[in-house]
Each structure stands twice: as C-alpha cells, then as structure tokens.
Design goal:
The protein is mostly helical and 349 residues long. The protein has 14 helices and no strands.
Length: 349
C-alpha cells in the first residue's frame, strides 16, 4: 500500500501548476556519478544544480512602439484610399489594444497601403505626409517584429523551466516541428527587416500556439546545466583516482577491473554519450534557429534580454551554457581515456 506521504506529495504535485514531469534524467545521471565512484572505489559527491535563469519577464522584453502623432493619423484617415480604412481600424477601441502579432500586421498593412496611395496623392501636402508616415513606420518596424517574436507570452511557455529535462528518447519529433516553425519565421523576419512589408504573417499565430503547447527549449536548457554539473562531478572522481591512486600503475598495467571497463563502455559510451549526442542534435535543430531569431534582431533587443541571450542561446560566448557543457564533456572524455591509457586499454576496443 502506498505511503501516505507519497500520496500527499502526489496530490500536491497534481494540484500545482508547473509540477515538472519526471523523465528520470536527473536520477539516471546521479546514478552514473555513483557508478563511476563505485568503479573507482571512491565516495560519490554530487554538486548542487545551479538554476538556469528564466527568460526575462514579458514587461522587460516588450519594447514601446512609437506611434505616428494623432494629427497625422487623423489627417490620413480622411484621405480616400485603402489607408483610410487601415487607420480607421487602428483608431477603433480594439485597435488600441492590439496584441503584438496583430500590431505587426497593422504596421505592415499601413506601409503597403501608404505606398499604394502615393501615386494618387494630389492634394497639397498629402504626398509629403505619406512619405513621412512611410519612413516613420519603416524605421520602427523592427520594434514591431521584435515584439511579435520575442515579446509574446507564448515564448515563455517554450522556454519554461518547470517541465523538467529533455527526454532520453522521443523528443525528436517535437523538436523537428518547432525547428521548422522557427526556420520559416527566421525567413519572414529577415524579409521584414530588409524592408519587405509583403512578407506573409498568416502562419505566425500557429507558431505561437505550438510555443504555448511545447516546452523543449526550456527542457534543453535544464538538461545542459544538469549534464554539465554531473559530468564535472564524475570527472572530479576520475581526476582524483588518476592523480592520487592510479588503478593501473605502470608496473601492473592491464589490471583494470572488469567493473571499470563495464562502466566506461556501457554506462558512459553506451548511455551518457548517447544522451549528449541527442542534446547536441536538438541544440542544432532548435536552439541554433532560436539563436538566429534573436541574433538578427540584436540591435533591437533590450539589454536585459541581451545578457540572457548570450548565456542561454549563443553557442560561441565564454559564458554560454552550451560552451560550459562542451568543456565539461570534453574534459570528461579526456579523463576517461587517460585512465584507460594508464591501464593499456584502448578506448575504442
């Protein structure tokens, strides 16, 4: 019969939003460190996992979008072309509380309508006002693009840290769908930033819906931090044994225990390395396109987001979470091979 404390904990978990699913990754990596320690006849020591930083809050990510002055809008709303209807919709009650994606749609529609009106502008001063409006909207379009990508609420769900770790298997299909979305979005953003206001936006709402439903980006960040920490823990054990009490001193080379060989070949190369490979594949498939989505808007992004971007998306900065994981993985692999080499055992055999 289940322990009453277990039942209570389960009820609390189900009643609280954000209770992370147990993918078993954390316990599995803890067990790996313990197995390495046992094979080396050492005591395992598990470091605390430093929390990954949440994506900055929405109020810190959203940028103020400069508006045309009301006098110009009122003036343009009276002019008889498509722009009249665009401005009229914007001046309605609903238009004043547009969500970021609808705001972006309005900005691009305004630019297109104003350009279409230019050849018809005959009244004195109208052409000049239209040109000023087009120039103003074109200059601030990057802000609308930013708000409709990194400023939306849905991206917080994609990067939530409350949904545990990237699964050891079965995550590839979700990542592939998300990656395809971001790839298409990157093309649209590039076009908009290059001045093409005709870029299609109809699909972007579906991208936001998928962000709302999936959490792979946050899971990948959690897994990268956990892997880095546990690999460092296991590497410290290898270093301790190599430098203080080699298991296979030169005079007795070949005395590597079967337990140590099994730990390397089964638990490390057959399991941990496999998971590292899946994390790297998912990083290239999803995190790299997300990095591009931010990088091509680097000049627009707020400072608080820029710091988070460098640590969690960028792959080539010293403080990057991904650089830390790469260093930890390389050091761990190198120390395993050093240990095997002391015993005259090839890492490839």
């Amino acid at each position: 019969m289940p322990d009453i404390r277990t039942l209570i904990a389960s009820l609390i978990c189900f009643s609280l939003a954000g209770c992370a699913p147990d993918t078993g990754v954390h316990g599995w990596l803890d067990d790996y460190v313990a197995e390495v320690a046992g094979a080396l006849e050492l005591s395992p020591e598990l470091s605390g996992i430093e929390p990954v930083a949440q994506i900055p809050r929405r109020r810190e990510r959203v940028l103020d979008l400069p508006e045309l002055d009301m006098g110009m809008l009122d003036f343009l709303s009276l002019y008889g072309c498509e722009l009249q209807y665009v401005v009229g919709e914007r001046n309605s009650i609903m238009g004043r509380v547009m969500q970021p994606l609808n705001q972006l749609r309005y900005e691009t529609r305004f630019i297109r309508a104003a350009r279409d009106c230019l050849p018809e502008a005959e009244r004195e001063g109208v052409k000049e006002e239209l040109e000023k409006a087009i120039e103003s909207k074109s200059e601030t379009l990057s802000v609308a693009v930013w708000n409709a990508t990194w400023g939306v609420e849905e991206i917080e769900k994609l990067f939530t840290l409350s949904q545990g770790y990237y699964p050891r298997d079965g995550g590839e299909a979700v990542v592939a769908e998300l990656a395809a979305d971001v790839g298409q979005l990157n093309q649209t953003v590039a076009g908009l930033l290059a001045g093409n206001s005709d870029e299609p936006l109809d699909y972007v709402g579906h991208v936001h819906q998928r962000w709302q439903a999936e959490h792979s980006a946050g899971q990948l960040l959690n897994s990268a931090r956990l892997l880095t920490t546990r690999l460092d823990d296991a590497t410290a054990l290898l270093v301790e044994r190599i430098e203080t009490d080699p298991p296979c001193p030169e005079e007795s080379a070949g005395g590597l225990s079967d337990v140590l060989k099994k730990t390397y070949r089964s638990s490390y190369t057959g399991s941990v390395e496999t998971y590292l490979g899946s994390i790297e594949q998912a990083r290239k498939a999803l995190i790299e396109p997300l990095e591009k989505l931010a990088a091509q808007q680097f000049d627009t992004m707020p400072d608080v987001f820029r710091d988070w971007y460098r640590r969690h998306l960028a792959g080539d900065t010293a403080e990057s979470l991904w650089q830390q994981l790469e260093r930890a993985a390389e050091a761990h692999d190198r120390r395993w091979k050093q240990l095997l080499g002391q015993c005259g055992v090839s890492a490839e055999s």
